[in-house]
Every structure is written in structure tokens, then in C-alpha cells.
């Protein structure tokens, strides 16, 4: 069984629009385990590291402005196939293509205000978790509730 961790981040628009509780609730209801969470006002160097692969994209400066415009909620969720399933729960990057029922499909219209980030692979999840969290901010507690999920 692929037990994984993923990095999920409610972006500044999601915090301002007060959908944090709903997003946390969706991951909890699905059966995933929260192992780390904090509110952060990210500085540009952290955001540049996080979005390093997009540095050459024309939208990169706008993305930096957007992501540094307010606090974000940084989270680490753990569970079976949580990276791929988390991306499904988020919906497509462009909310116009996101299915209703997904987070972006339910809350967003514009790709430049798409509410949430989720790691796109196990490797990028581990890289992003290392960028946003120190080891002592991540819990390793025994959650037996997943015995009732899988
Ligand atoms: P994310 O990293 O935020 O979860 O998004 P993603 O993998 O689904 O998409 P990615 O291509 O990595 O893009 C990162 C974020 O950049 C913004 N974006 N703006 N054409 C545009 O203006 C444009 N394209 C992408 C979005 O906020 C996207 O989530």
C-alpha cells in the first residue's frame, strides 16, 4: 500500500474567502490524516523556491504577487495515494476546466485565483514539505481511524 505525504496549501484568496474550514473538512472526511498545519506569510524567496520550475513562465511575476498578497495555510496530509487523490480533489489547474465537486470547480473561476495548491508527485511533495516545514513541526501520531477507511 502506497502510504504517502502531500503538501497542500490554501492560497491567499482561499484564506480571504474563508474556505479553509471546508478544505480541511474535505480532506478529513475523505479519510486522510493531518500531520502538520500552520499559517504563514510567505516571503518571495520561499515562493521562488516553491515555484522554481515556473521561473521562465510569463505569468511568474503575477504568480509571485498573488502568492505573497496575504497569509497562506500550509498543510501536510498523509495516507494511501494522497498525492494523486489530493490533486483529484483540487480539480484542474484552470478552474474553468475543474469539475464541479472539486475544490477549484466549486470555488474558483480564474487560473490566477485558484484557491489551493497540491503537490503533483511524491518527489515534489517531499521537496515542498522540506521547504515549508521543519521536521519538528510534523507529527508522527498513530491514527487508527484509517482502519475503518482502508
Ligand atoms: P499549483 O502548483 O499551484 O498546485 O498549480 P498546478 O500544479 O495545478 O499548476 P502549475 O502549472 O504548476 O501552475 C502553478 C500556479 O500558477 C498559476 N498559473 N497562472 N496562465 C496563468 O496565468 C497561470 N498558469 C498557472 C496558478 O495559480 C497555478 O496554480
UniProtKB/TrEMBL annotation:
Transmembrane portions of the chain = none
Name of the featured protein: Nucleoside diphosphate kinase
Q: Return the NCBIfam families for the record.
A: PRK00668.1
What InterPro entries has UniProt attached to this entry?
Answer: NDK-like_dom (IPR034907), NDK-like_dom_sf (IPR036850), Nucleoside_diP_kinase (IPR001564), Nucleoside_diP_kinase_AS (IPR023005)
Give me the reactions it catalyses: a 2'-deoxyribonucleoside 5'-diphosphate + ATP = a 2'-deoxyribonucleoside 5'-triphosphate + ADP
Does the record bear Chaperone in its keywords? Answer: no
The record places the active site at 117
Judged by the first EC level, this protein's enzyme class is transferase
Cofactor dependence is on: Mg(2+)
User: Can you tell me which family this protein belongs to?
Assistant: Belongs to the NDK family.
The lineage is: Eukaryota, Sar, Alveolata, Colpodellida, Vitrellaceae
Indicate whether Transferase appears among the record's keywords. yes
- Keyword annotations: ATP-binding, Kinase, Nucleotide-binding, Transferase
Looking up SMART domains in the UniProt record yields: NDK
Provenance organism: Vitrella brassicaformis (strain CCMP3155)
Amino acid at each position: 500500500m502506497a502510504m504517502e505525504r502531500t503538501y497542500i496549501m490554501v492560497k491567499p484568496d482561499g484564506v480571504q474567502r474563508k474556505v479553509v474550514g471546508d478544505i480541511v473538512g474535505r480532506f478529513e472526511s475523505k479519510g486522510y490524516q493531518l500531520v502538520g498545519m500552520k499559517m504563514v506569510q510567505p516571503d518571495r524567496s520561499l515562493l521562488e523556491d516553491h515555484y522554481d520550475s515556473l521561473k521562465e513562465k510569463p505569468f511568474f511575476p503575477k504568480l509571485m504577487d498573488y502568492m505573497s498578497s496575504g497569509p497562506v495555510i500550509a498543510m501536510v496530509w498523509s495516507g494511501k495515494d494522497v498525492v494523486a487523490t489530493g490533486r483529484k480533489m483540487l480539480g484542474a489547474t484552470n478552474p474553468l476546466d475543474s469539475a464541479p465537486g472539486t475544490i477549484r470547480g466549486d470555488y474558483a473561476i480564474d487560473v490566477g485565483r485558484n484557491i489551493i495548491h497540491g503537490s503533483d508527485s511524491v518527489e515534489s511533495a517531499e521537496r515542498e514539505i522540506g521547504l515549508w516545514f521543519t521536521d519538528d513541526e510534523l507529527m508522527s501520531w498513530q491514527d487508527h481511524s484509517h482502519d475503518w477507511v482502508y
